[in-house]
Structure formats: structure tokens, C-alpha cells
Amino acid sequence: MTGQTTRGSAPLRYRAGPRRQAFAALLDGLRADGGAHVVTGEPGGGRTAFLEFAARAFRAGPVWHVRAEPACSPQPHSGLRTLLRAGRHFGRVPGDGTAGEVFLDILRAATARSPLLVCVDDAHLWDTASRAALGRVAARVHAADGVHRVGLLVTVPGHRPVERELAKLPVLELAPLTPGDAAGLLHDLTDGAVDPVVRDELVTEAQGNPGLLLALAHRLSPAQLRGDHALPRPLADTGTLTAVAGGCLSGQRPDRADLLLAVAAAMRATGEQDAEAALVRRATNGLGGRDDDVPPEPVEPPQASELLTVPGGRLRFRSPLVGRAVYAGAPSERRRAAHRSLAAAHPEPHGVPALLHRSWTAPGPDAVLAAELEAAATDSTSGTPSALRRTAQVRAAELTPDDAQRARRYTAAAEQALLAGHPPEALRLLDAAGSRPAPAPVRGRAELLRGRVLLADGPVDDARESFLLAAGLLTGPGAAQADAAVLGAADAAWAAGDRQGCLRALTHDAHDASAEAAVAGVLDLRAADANTTGPQEAAAREAPEGSSAHRGAAPTQPAVPPPALLRDHRDGMRAVLLGRFDLAAAPLTRVVDRGRPATEPERLLRSAAAALMLGDVSAARRAGARALASARTLGTASLEPRALEYLAYAELRAGRHQLARTHAEEGLRAARRTGQRNTAAHHHAVLALAASIEGARARVTEHATAALTTARRHGLAQAALLAQWAAARADLGEGRPEEAADRLGPLVRPGARRGHFAVWMLAVPCFVEAAALAGRPEDARAVVEDFALWAGCGADPQAPAQLLRCRALLAAPEAADELYLRALDRHDETSGDFERARTELLHGKWLRRRRRLREARARLGEALVDFERCGAQLWARQAAAELRAGGVAPSGPGMGEPRRHGARDLSRLTPQQLRIARCVAEGATNREVALSLSVSTRTVDYHLRNVFATLGVRSRVELVRLVEQAEKTGAQL
């Protein structure tokens, strides 16, 4: 053992993972008050690196390091002798019972001037007497029993229980690294030279273990790290696993080694983190014929041990890495014997786990066993999870002698891999499926699945080509999969922003030559560039933030939806692209209706997509929510982020950005778990849009950058434009209209740089506002006329009010006021506080600059309240600043207490104003007030503005309070 008093420098910076705040609080406590903690974690989990991290962070005083050297034979008191050396005490180590006191005296002396941190690494390697003395010292330090300002960190491995000498101390367990932190560690190690695909595979294989992650990286050549050469299979081989965790397995008795191997083999067959204790016991009793001819001893009921725990009748390795090392390090004949015993002991001999155990004992191809595995994996009544179905299908393919059958089974395995959330593995299995000759339908199904994988996590142009190839291979009478491939190709073209490519894909139907010819004729008439503005193109714009609906349903689903549903979706989508909403309504409505009674996620997601195309936000939300619930019930992990994407976009369509943010945050986590970077980019775009409303500029930048990074790599035109729109809206919210106009101009004006054909219309109101406020109204006039065509389609409830607002911004002074009032009337017909508040803010600004201060204050007050209600704090500050400029001290959250009004204020109102005030206090909208009083909505708005100005209130909320107070005091209305 060695001691040192200088801080070591870790080769890589420590990444604390998901518990950064807890670690920071612990280190702050050590600096301020001292104390003792045990730090534990599985082999390779970063215990030593954490001590280095703690030492670098401890700047209040000296740090003493004590490291164990396993190669040295422990001698009595060797551990305490090392501690004394670290404390620069080189005298004789006292006898039993006094060594700890001597070290306590050293600590007291060392902390007379400053705090001290003592880092003891691998204390489990110390001799028993030293550990006992260390435990007594740690207890005194932790209790501050005469020892102050000493921080003591003691590391022990997490694959075994904490030694009893230290068991009473608080334990800090190092959690696995998050995928992001693991990727950062690889970036540090390779100076950023690792290919993203290789990085993701290494991160997945390491399962958050930094030691294994580094070992895997060191195993690869520079060319393999760059992605130029194929990776070795398996990535974590026997040598790598045993190098990281093999030392934990030395000295095991033969019967105990058999038990550990049986547990590891049982876990491999189920894919779970534990194994049934009774099954393992039966299997271990049946193990025999060891190489050393030692007869097996009867195995007692499995109990908790140094390496295993027994929670609820299940056996679990304390360290998952140790379990992997147990299986990898066992001789192949012992592994086969363990699987043979487990298969014989299994209560369901024809279930997937028992068949997998049998398969791992097979010496070569076995067509009968392969057929049994496939039948068990495809049994819809078994409740087998996708990950286990995938394993069974892979094993069935490996045992299959026929090339066509093998390709089909590899494709089925890839499908299950994608459903389980593992796109890279799905692509590897598809490559294996394509390595042998196979009939056209088998190859077509593989290409269909490849397209789905790439649509969720790859270049969408590549996805389109795979879909088109699949459509050609799957052509035939009643080929529902060919229809799915056609629609998938259109989805990919839509995602890429290729409108004509989308139309061509939708006419790729050998059974519908007349329809293809008809649409070809339409395309001939529209030979102009797709960016040319025209009524058909303008009408084909997709509804706000619902654009992803056209990218189809979830990327994989074992059962292809009925042909009628797919063709209705295709026909409706084609009509929308051609600007024929009259022809789109019927087929899309049928798709929505078919989703209402459905329980399959595929149908429900198609229903949500069709509802968004129709502008039926409520139906889209219902279908998306049901699809999410269904995906979770079925355990199809890959469908969850897509269902959450539909929900997020639908909530944005409805003006509920906070709910959209909630769904997008959950969807982003799900997309990352399942390796769907394209879906993650759309969730980032939603989060950027939500943050641009809330005024969180740092989050806008973070999510917009993330969305654009993937969008540019994979050709996602939709996500790119939405992210740029979010950045521009943040500029506008911060009072920088010039920057917003410059950012949005190329994306919405005609030309080669115009954004996605289905999304650029959504950004027009933002651009018009930015251009008008920047003093460049002429830049926006042409796009307003295009927007008018879109608003007339009826697929976006917000568009008519936004159009009137745009016209007001560009109108002459004598016409602007009426346009603003008409816009507010249209806002009353839809939900969404944010868009209404933006119109109120712009109208209030317009009124204030024309010295109509009383009306301006009323309008700005309503804008302020609406912004606050929807959480748009940055925009609320704009409204408050305008109020202050108009001579009003705004009140509300963070702006002071609301002013108090007396009932006598009501006497200042005219009779008509009193009647309107009463109706508003009862919760009526302006339109409802107009109907009840037989006046126009414009008249109600005019009187209500005067009511606000007369009473000095800013919102309907304050008016309600004032009316209620008047009623309590008996005032007459």
C-alpha cells in the first residue's frame, strides 16, 4: 500500500452522472463540516476517479490519498501504517486498540490550521485489524467526536456487501453514467475522433459502466473508432469483461461457481436482471460431469451471498457487470451444461426461455428447433416481450439451414429489435438477412423495415429509396405491405421537404394506373418549381406544428394496417398536397373514424395523423393519447416517442404550449432510449417552440441547436424550419425584430431558400410582425396574400385571426383599428391565450402610439394577464413595459400587488357599460355578451375597453373581482 499527500490528476474528468447535485452537496458538506462516507459502485464504476474528482474539488486544505495495492500481501496493521505514513507519522505503529487513537491525534493536529480530506481507496483489501481500526476512526470522524473539519471518503466495491466495520456509515453509491455523460467520456478519450454510430454502440454495450466503456474503446483500432472498419462481435468479449470484473470471481468454490453460472445463464434466456431462485436451484442440482471429476454437492436453497441478492424469491447479481463476466468467463462446455440443466428444469418446456436454453446446447443447424422457436416467438397469447421475441428469432435464424427461411427470420428479429427500441441492432440483423439469396417478398419486407428504421433514425432520403424498393418487390394482388411501403416513401419525402417527390411516391401504385395518370396530368400542369407560390401550394400547407403527422405512423408494427385504411390515408394526403381539401375530407375522415374503436397503436397513429391534416385537434389528441397508452400496454417501446410527438404537436396546435412541452420532454427521453434521433429532433423542435413562448432563451438555443444538428445530418426539413422559427420568435420576444425578420425572411419568401413546403406558412405571422416592427412592411405584403389562401382552407383554427392581425400590421392607420378588433373577435372562437395576447399587445402598442392611452392601457392590461396565464413571461414583460410607458404601474406576479378598487368605482359606468360588466363577470365571452344584448361584438369590445379604462382594471379577472366586491357590499349594478 502507498500513501501520498499530493492530489492525483485523473486522465479524464469525472462525470458524476444523474447525481451531480448530490455529489456537489456532499463535497460542500465535507469542506464545511467534515464527516465520513463510504463510496461504493460496481467494478469499473469509477470509485478511484471519484476520489480524484473529490480531491480536485477540495480546495480548503490538504488532501491525503491512501491507495491499496492488491498485489501486496496484507500484514497486520498494514492499512493503518499506510494512513500514518500519509499523515507523515513514521514511528512505530501502536498495538491493538491504540492505532486508531494515534491516527485521530494526527487528524486533530492536521486540522488545526485548515480542513483536511482523507481519501482511502479499496479499503476492502485491508487486513481485518486495519479495517476495524479504520471503522472506529471513521465513526469518530462522522460523529465529530473530538475531530472536526476532517472529511473521510472510503471506497469499497459494490458487487459485495459493505464490510461490517464500515456498515454504519452513510453510503454513497455511484450510479451508472447517463448516455450523454458516457458519450462525453468517449469524446474526452478520443479527442472527438469517434464516429457517432460507433459511439452509440459503445455506450449501449457499456451500460453506463465507465471502466467497461474505456476498455471497449481501447480494444478498437483508430479505423474502427472512426467507423472505417467493422467492429468486432461481440463488442464486449470474454477478455474485455474479465479484465474489468474478472478479479471479483477468483476463489469461488465449484458449487458456488455453478450457482453463479446458472443464474447468469437464466438471465441470458429471459433478458431480465434477475432469475427465479427455485428454477436455478433445480438446475444447479442437475449440473454434473465437471472437468475435474468432482461430483456436485447438493445445493442448498440459494441465499444472499457476496455476489448475489435474493429479492422476493429472485436471484440478482449485486453488479450486472459481474453477471456478464461470469457467463463470458465460463468454459463453453460448462455453459452448455448450465443451459441443458435449465431447459430440463424449466416448468414450461415449450416456452421461449426453455427453447432458448435448448438452442444454446445445439451443436449445429436444427430446422425443427428453429421452427419451434419461431412458433413460440410469434405466439400472440404468450405475452413475451419484444426483446425476448427478438432473441428467439435471432436464434431461430442461426439454426435455420435454408437461406430464404433464415433471411425471413432475421427480418422478423429485426422487426422485434426495432419494437424493443434498438434501431442499430435492427439494421445489423437486416444486413444479416440480406447476406443470403432470398425471394422478392422476403427482400421486400426487409427493405420495408429498413425504410422504417431510417425514417426514425437515419437520412430520410435513404429511407425513401428503401421504401420505393420495397414497394416494387412487394407488388402483387392484395399486397397490403406494398401500400405501406408507398405511404412510407411519401412520409420520407414529406420529412425531406420534397413535395413533388411526395406526390410521385403517392402515385407509385401498380394497381391504380388511372389515378397515377390523373395525378401525373396535374403535375404536368404544375411544372413550376415546388417553391413557386400558388393557390394549390398555399392550400397544401400543413397545419401548425402538426407537420410530423404526415410522416406516417410509428416506424414498425408487426401487423400492417388494413389496405383500405392505408389507401384512404394515401388518397387524403395526396389530395392535401394538390390543394384539394374538398377531396381530402372524405378519406381522411374515414381514417379518423377507424381509429376511434381501435386498440392497435398503428391505426391510432394513422388516425391522429389524419385528424391533424383535417385540423381536428381534439381528435388528434384523443388518438395520440390512446396510441401512447396502447404502446405502453403492448410493450412496444419504439412507438412511445412517436405517440408523444403527435400529442406534443396537437397541443401546440391547440395553443397549450406547456402541455406540449410536457409531452415533448417525455418523448425526448423515450426517443433517446429507443435510438430514434429523427423523432428526437422533432421533440427538440417542439421544446424550442415552447421555450420561445416562455422566454427561456438558453433553452431555445439548446433545443434548436440539437434539432438542427440532426436535421442537417438526416435531411429533416420540417424540424429544421421549426427550430429556426423558434429562434426567430425568441428574437421577437426579446424586442429584436430586425434579427427575427432577417432569420425568417429567406424561409417564408419565395425562392430556393424557402423552408419546408408544409411548414413555412406557420412562420408567416411571426415574420410579418417582425418586418412591420422593424420598419420593413413591404417585405411582408406578398407572403400575407399567400397566408390568406392557407387561412381559407380551414385546417388551422388560429389562422383567420392571425391573418387579420397581419393585415392590421400592414394597414393604413384608418383601417388598422377595425382589423385588430376583428382579429380579437376571431380569437374568441378558438382556444390559445398566447396568440390572443400577441394581438392584444400589438393593438395596445398601436393605440398608445396614437395617444389613445385609456384604450391602450385596457388592451395592454389584458395582454399582460393573458401572457401571465400561459406562462409567457418574456412577452409579459413587453406588455408591462408598454403599460409603464403609458403611465401605468403594472401589477401581477413579480410586478407588485394588485390595486384595490372600491364599489363606488362602478357608479362611473354608463348603464350599457354596467350591463356588459355584469355579463363579463358571469364568464361570458364578447360574442356571448353581444348575443345576449342584441348588439355587435365590435360594440361590446368598444364598451368593454371603456369599462377597463374607467375603472383602471387591466383584465377580466380584475373586473370579476371588482363586481364580486360590489355585490358583497350591496352596490347596485
TrEMBL record:
Organism: Streptomyces chlorus
A Pfam family of this chain: GerE
Region spans: Disordered: 531-566
Superkingdom of the source species: Bacteria
PANTHER family given in the database record: TRANSCRIPTIONAL REGULATORY PROTEIN DESR, TWO-COMPONENT RESPONSE REGULATOR
Annotated ranges, domain HTH luxR-type: 902-967
Protein name: LuxR C-terminal-related transcriptional regulator
The entry's keywords: DNA-binding
